[in-house]
Structures are given as C-alpha cells and as structure tokens.
Design brief:
Largest sheet: 4 strands, parallel
Strand order of the largest sheet: 3-4-5-6
Number of helices: 9
Shape: globular
Strand content: 15-25%
Number of strands: 6
Number of domains: 1
CATH topology: Rossmann fold
Order of helices and strands: HEEHHEHHEHEHEHH
CATH architecture: 3-Layer(aba) Sandwich
Length: 218
C-alpha cells in the first residue's frame, strides 16, 4: 500500500475527520438508546481519499495483531467496505502474483429467505481464520449476530474482531462485548474508545456531565 500520508495516531485521525461529535439535544442511536455523544464513520467511508487514509492507518495494525488471518469479513452494513478493502490490501498480492485462492467475503444486509447458507447470507462466504470488522460497537448486537451466522459456515473459523470505535455500551444481557468475545476465545481489538475520545474533545461542561452520566448508567 503506497501513500504519502503523514503518519498520525488513530485518535488524531478520528478527531480530525469529525467522526465523533456531541449535541445538547440527544441523538437516537442504532440501538434505540438516546445519547448526547455520537460516532459516525459513514462520511469517511463515502469519501475515497478519507477512506484510503483510514486504510493506510489500520492495515499495519491489523496485520500485526492478526498475522494468522486468512480472511477479513465486515459486519453488514457498517463494516462491509472495511472488510472488503482490508482483504484486498492485505491479500491481493498473494492472489495475483502467487496465484493463490483467496476468499473475498461479503455479507448480505438482508438475508434471502431460502437456499444454502452461502447464498442466503453472503455474496462470497468467509473461509479460513476470519477476523470480523465493524465500524462502531455500542451494544455489540450486530457483531454478535454476525458471529452466530459464521458458526454455520463450515470453512470459517472466527479468530478475532476489530472495531474502529467502541462506544462503551453493554449487550442486552448487560455485559461488555470484550467479555463475551473472550469467552468465545476470540481476540478483540478496539482502535478507539468512546471515553478516550471524549477526554480529548472540547465539550461544554453541562453536556459533558450528561455524557458521563450515560457511561455511568451502562
């Protein structure tokens, strides 16, 4: 991967691209909960230059953390682009130059009602030691649902999870995502965390207290 982008920390990138933000009026999260603090990777993934810079930052990190990986799979739909581009950046050389067979996995946002699992849930099924990627984890329910589907993929072995930003929420059972994954023997990496990002932002005191209350109530 060639780039002239100046190396920066991942936190710096997130703050520079305004991935995180706050408001006096609460937002409604995908989980249905209300929050004064949001994390939105959509605009970054819709701009090719920003997305390429994102890849430049994270490819070395995931290669270091998961040297054994055969496949990167994005949780539909938040992690779809990320999974595809990580797979391409890391394995394209082997696919083209060494003529190796490399999976190129993509999940369906809305599964088909009938057919084998490969066609119902995927446009390219994950194979080998697989790392699941997601943009934001709040309750972690979407990610855990994706893992449940992967259990029925005969050639797929989930070994890790990479999340761009962990907001710090809990599952519907009141547990942190990292603890659930640890029980499944799946390595969990969050490149940024909500609390760490908040500490680096200039937030009015009244709003900051409201956001702190959200974390304390989790």
């Amino acid at each position: 991967m060639n780039s002239t982008t100046k190396t920066k920390s991942f936190d710096e990138f997130v703050l520079e691209k305004k991935i995180v933000g706050f408001s006096e009026d609460p937002f409604t999260l995908a989980s249905g909960k209300k929050s004064h603090f949001y994390v939105n990777w959509r605009e970054c993934s819709e701009d090719l230059a920003s997305f390429y810079e994102l890849l430049f930052l994270i490819v070395p990190l995931v290669k270091k953390e998961f040297p054994e990986a055969d496949c990167f799979y994005g949780v539909p739909e938040g992690g779809t682009k990320l999974g595809l581009f990580l797979q391409y950046e890391i394995f394209a050389k082997a696919a083209f130059e060494k003529k190796e067979t490399v999976p190129f996995a993509m999940g369906r946002a809305k599964p088909k009602e009938r057919g084998p699992i490969g066609s119902r849930f995927f446009l390219g099924m994950p194979k080998g030691k697989t790392v699941i990627v997601e943009d934001v984890a709040t309750t972690g329910e979407s990610l855990l649902k994706a893992l449940e589907v992967l259990k029925d993929c005969p050639e797929c072995l989930p070994v890790g999870v990479v999340v761009l930003t962990d907001r710090g929420g809990k599952t519907s059972e009141g547990r942190f995502l990292k603890d659930v994954l640890k029980e499944k023997n799946i390595k969990y990496i969050a490149l940024t965390k909500g609390k760490d990002l908040l500490s680096q932002m200039k937030i009015p005191e009244d709003i900051f207290k409201k956001i702190q209350g959200e974390f304390e109530n989790e």
